[in-house]
Design a protein that fits this description.
The complex is a heterodimer of chains A (246) and B (498).
Chain A lengths: L2 H30 L15 H14 L1 H6 L1 H21 L9 H5 L4 H21 L1 H6 L2 H22 L5 H13 L9 H16 L7 H7 L1 H4 L13 H4 L7
Chain B lengths: L33 H4 L12 H15 L1 H9 L11 H6 L6 H16 L1 H5 L1 H4 L6 H10 L8 H5 L6 H14 L5 H13 L7 H19 L14 E4 L10 H15 L3 E2 L17 H18 L3 E4 L3 H15 L13 E2 H10 L15 E3 L3 H6 L8 H13 L30 H7 L1 H14 L3 E4 L2 H10 L10 E3 H8 L8
Parallel strand pairs in B: 1-2, 1-3, 3-4, 5-6, 6-7
Helix pairs in contact in B: 2-3, 2-10, 5-10, 13-22, 14-15, 16-18, 18-22
Classes of the chains: A mainly alpha (246), B mainly alpha (498).
Bound molecules: iron/sulfur cluster (2 copies).
Chain lengths: 246, 498
């Protein structure tokens, strides 16, 4: 067993643990924190089903962003959809046999890797070109884009320039999952790609990537507009003696 | 009074300005004095060790308010909200971009409550809680009218209004409150309304109105106060007792009740619908101010509660009352509690219980200003968006010439009047005038295209703000009308089928 294999095996165990525990902790915190008042941004759905539909639109077609700014929407939506497609496509490294649905993505992934990089490039360009966005960008915002961009480019590099032994890579990851370690090919592009992905997993729970779970907990989007019909209380508004004045 | 400043010029289209850092750094609301703070349960003034107290308070808020927790964690700095705030558009100060305003608070949250902020503050824009930071909070969280326009356009619904309420709550908790809002809250607790009008003054005013209406119409329309056993308690902003164009609205309510033959009353104890507790994020004051309405309703033995024309009051009433002072099981369940005066009038119109002579308003060509808190924080009627349809239907029932402003400036995308959220004070005139620019620009367009002469609104703050800022943009100050002022002009009193 090479040092590289051991190192990356440990790295991915650690990164996975940090990602899962960190995000679970944050979701727990979001869920536990009460929302004392009704604050949906109206017009809002008046039923639970309506809220599900609103949320579905938000997370699939980015409805509010579309209303807001067509450029950010275009770059952001393309980037995210390509990201999801790529994530699904990468599942073939973790499944044996590979589910048929995933294999269908094959013809599609020609575009998704490029779309991923192009979408990021558009978002990043705005951070330089639009003075308002430049003003609100912190170094960490640039670093995050750099990280994602490098993941995309190293992935593209392996796809088109320095092919790697993907059968061995698959064996490595299946081995990790079965606690039966298999050797990892020590190709530079692959190691760079994997290091960056692990880094992303590690910073996820303490970064703005928390918008992913956050959007589902956003009270302005997930509350039903029915305060008159149904009395709402939570947190301090549940503890205070409201109805007892009479 | 504010220093001299230049009123923005209205262009043909709304332009997104380039950032001008520091443009509004000098804007300062007067700081509350101890006598405005201590009666509200806040420390009198900033004292030794306030930094730790402020940071601790921030931690408590984050723990007890999911919106603040999620919003502080989730912003990706996409920039979608940066051109959505009327204060940014009007002042060009980048700290008036919603995300930048949030960052004033977020930077401190990151420093004390997140790992990267503790380890690498520079990298993630985290800052220590210092006097400079506090001063910046004080400036820019008093340049936010809590209008929620940013929240409509943020992909995660991040509502800067919630952040600015939290920031003001923290500032109050260390004795750095704002004079205007706190002074008013002291008045409402002590006297019963924001303007500090005592019971006898109200009675006088209402008697005066009865005489005026009698002179104008020959009909005995009543403006009852503290009448036990009335069917409906009307709670309205105290400005309605006081000045044009507000008072025309109150006259209108009375005529609608008269025409419908429904008994109603105002209350001295609850002579204010407004609730500035919301503006400063103070749950205790919010609830205490709201509680007067429940007390008055029980005391007078009414069956229904109707709320007059006031934007943030309608938000508090519609969205928060049931939570804060409900349940309303002692009221008639056949009617929504509370009911907006526009819903009330609209309902009567639908049932054919009111008759109008629209030509009474033929001297006017009218547009309608959607007030933020009605548009984006509440509803009317039983379907989403009823808050846009119902007031317009009431306006259109009262006049022949109605024209909407550009679609991207009304309904959920409406532009704030520029004076909401506790900014309606003279020393903030510059930010108020500049913040009104986008609304004025849209108004200018319908003035030019359709010869609009009047703009109707259902919010006391909007009306007061428009009265002040319209002249800065070369519009007459009496262009602003109460919706029920239009109703008042057009409604025919006496039996409907005459
Ligand atoms: S739109 Fe929302 S996520 Fe984007 S910068 Fe503004 S607050 Fe942050
Ligand atoms: S709530 Fe309104 S005033 Fe405040 S930042 Fe958002 S858009 Fe601006």
């Amino acid at each position: 067993m090479s040092a590289v294999t051991v190192l990356y095996a440990l790295l991915f165990y650690a990164a996975t643990a940090i990602l899962v525990v960190g995000v679970a902790r944050k979701i727990f915190i979001f869920a536990r924190t009460p929302q004392p008042l009704k604050i949906p941004t109206t017009p809002a759905p008046t039923t639970r089903a309506g809220v599900w539909w609103r949320m579905t639109r938000e997370v699939t077609v980015f409805e509010s962003l579309f209303k807001s700014n067509k450029w950010i929407w275009l770059f952001g939506w393309v980037f995210h959809m390509c990201l999801f497609a790529e994530l699904a496509w990468h599942l073939r490294y973790f499944t044996q046999p590979v589910p048929v649905v995933i294999t269908w993505l094959h013809w599609f992934t020609v575009f998704t890797a490029l779309g991923f990089v192009a979408g990021l490039a558009g978002l990043w360009a705005r951070r330089f070109l639009v003075d308002r966005v430049r003003y609100i960008s912190n170094p960490s915002d640039h670093l995050m884009l750099a990280l994602l961009m490098a993941i995309g480019l190293s992935g593209l590099g392996m796809k088109y320039l320095m092919r790697t032994d993907i059968v061995a890579v698959k064996a490595f990851f299946l081995g990790l999952m079965r606690f039966d370690w298999q050797p990892l090919p020590a190709d530079p592009a692959l190691l760079v790609h994997l290091t960056l992905v692990a880094t992303l997993m590690i910073v996820f729970p303490v970064s703005k990537l928390l918008h992913a779970p956050g959007v589902f907990f956003s009270p302005t989007r997930n509350q039903v507009d029915n305060p008159r019909e149904k009395r709402w209380t939570a947190g301090w508004s549940a503890e205070s003696k409201s109805g007892q004045a009479g | 009074m504010a220093a001299k400043f230049e009123t923005p010029t209205l262009k043909e289209y709304l332009e997104i300005p380039h950032t001008r850092p520091g443009a509004m750094a000098e804007s300062k609301a007067y700081v509350a004095k101890p006598e405005h703070n201590t009666p509200l349960g806040f420390p009198g003034e900033l004292a030794e060790g306030w930094e730790q107290k402020a940071v601790a308070r921030l931690g408590e808020i984050v723990k007890s308010n999911r919106a603040v927790q999620v919003f502080l964690d989730s912003c990706v700095k996409c920039g979608a909200c940066t051109d959505k705030c009327h204060y940014y558009l009007g002042t060009e100060d980048p700290k008036n971009m919603p995300v930048a305003r949030q960052d004033l608070l977020r930077s401190v949250y990151r420093r004390y409550y997140t790992l990267p902020g503790k380890l690498f503050p520079k990298l993630v824009g985290a800052r220590d809680m210092t006097k400079d930071v506090l001063d910046e909070w004080y400036n820019y969280f008093h340049q936010c009218s809590q209008c929620r326009r940013c929240s409509v356009f943020c992909p995660y619904g991040i509502d800067t209004a919630e952040i600015s309420m939290a920031a003001r709550e923290i500032m109050d908790s260390v004795g750095q409150g704002q004079k205007y809002t706190n002074e008013i809250m002291v008045k409402v607790h002590k006297i019963g309304n924001n303007l500090g009008l005592p019971g006898p003054a109200l009675e006088d005013t209402l008697l005066g109105l009865e005489e005026d209406v009698k002179d104008e119409t020959g009909v005995d329309v009543k403006y009852p106060l503290d009448v036990k056993g009335a069917d409906v308690l009307v709670v309205t902003p105290s400005a309605d007792f006081f000045a044009e164009p507000h008072v025309d609205g109150l006259i209108g309510y009375g005529k609608v009740f008269h025409a419908a033959g429904i008994s109603w009353t105002l209350s001295t104890h609850a002579s204010e619908a407004g609730n500035f507790g919301m503006f400063v994020g103070s749950s205790a004051n919010l609830q205490k101010i709201a509680m007067r309405i429940r007390e008055a309703a029980l005391d007078l033995g009414v069956k229904r509660i109707v709320v007059g024309e006031c934007g943030h009051a309608w938000r508090v009433a519609y969205s928060f009352w049931n939570t804060l002072i409900g349940p309303f099981d002692f009221l008639d369940p056949r009617y929504p509690v509370p009911q907006h005066i526009c819903e009330f009038t609209y309902d009567l119109i639908q049932r054919g219980a009111l008759k109008f002579d629209k030509s009474a308003n033929d001297d006017k060509r009218v547009t309608f200003h959607d007030s933020c808190n009605v548009a984006r924080a509440s509803r009317m009627g039983d379907m989403p968006g009823g808050q846009f349809i119902i007031p317009r239907a009431v306006v259109q029932a009262s006049c022949n010439h109605f024209f909407d402003m550009a679609p991207e400036t009304i309904h959920e995308a409406t532009f704030c009047c520029g004076g909401g959220g506790g900014l309606l004070t003279d020393e903030l005139m510059e930010v108020r005038v500049k913040g009104a620019m986008p609304r004025m620009q849209a108004l200018q367009q319908v003035v030019e295209e359709h010869g609009v002469t009047h703009i109707a609104a259902i919010c006391a703050i909007c009306k007061a703000q428009f009265t002040k800022v319209l002249p800065y943009y070369q519009f007459p100050m009496d262009m602003i009308q109460s919706v029920h002022g239009l109703v008042s002009k057009a409604i025919r009193l006496g039996p409907v089928n005459e």
